[in-house]
Amino acid sequence: MRHLNDLSVLVTGGSRGLGLLLARQCVERGWNVTITARDQEELDRAAALLRRRAGRRGTTVAARVCDVRDKYAVRDVVARTAEDQRGLDVVLGNAGIIQVGPAEATGEEGFRGAMETMFFGALHTSLESLPHLRKSSVGGRLGLIGSVGGLLPVPHLLPYACAKSAIGALAEGLRAEQAEYGVSVTAAHPGLMRTGSHLQAEFGGDAAREYAWFATLAGMPLVTMSAPRAAERIVDAVERRRTRVVLTPAARLGATAYGMAPTLVTRANCLVARLLPDSQEKEGATVKGHGLAQDENAARPRWQSAISALNERASRRFNETARQGT
């Protein structure tokens, strides 16, 4: 497919990880991009990375602080982006958080935080963007980033799974409602990707052991997908107006199996849950992956540390750490 040129794009959660790579894909297609996130310092680093590429293509990159949990902040950033870029053609709702641990340790506040950031963040982004997308001369395109965890609930990732499941329903429902206005909505459900997101995740319960399994799984080459490749596939799907895209063979297999045999898959999940860290702790403080990665007292097998290191290298490239990537 020949790429469209000179589109106006807004990417929420665009300062690091998958969001940064989605923005980079748009820049490489010659599109004008605005990224948003909550952290000004992260945004500045991300914008600098993107502008290096944009300068060679004659496109623009803007960065604006925005907390997607605040619908008025979203309304303002959408309006300002549409004004500065003479409209909006593509919006990618990617802002999110990851909480790892048993549901009891995560507690109600953990679930509420996941829903506020991911589901309501996607809802605010969608509702504020749709009036502008309907005016697009090339047909507006909205992409909402779900997860295979929203299609197949995963133990010790339940707040994330609940929020991502709601995003999937929102995307497919909005697609049906907006079709008559020429706006397409794409639900993207990535599997595990090597973005370094384990360093930004929040861990509860037996935090050190939760970090160990999550960081290892998130870095395994045969299970995970290259993050730049995932971003390319997602932007392709949005551009081509696809309804849904599920990335990685393992994610497609798991989602299909759950749809066809939910009882069997749920029983398998029961076995998986027994292998995960057993913590009876109730609600408590969570620990960021950054702190756990730097804990020299944490005993981890050498093979586990080696696999995690693959993902930590990705984190430096995709702005997941305080160090600037390339």
From TrEMBL:
Gene3D superfamilies on file: NAD(P)-binding Rossmann-like Domain (3.40.50.720)
Transmembrane residue ranges: none
Family designation: Belongs to the short-chain dehydrogenases/reductases (SDR) family.
Keyword Oxidoreductase attached: yes
Name of this chain's protein: SDR family NAD(P)-dependent oxidoreductase
PROSITE patterns the record matches: ADH_SHORT
Keyword Hydrolase (UniProt): no
Keyword tags: Oxidoreductase
Native source species: Streptomyces iconiensis
Pfam families xref list: adh_short (PF00106)
Highest taxon, organism lineage: Bacteria
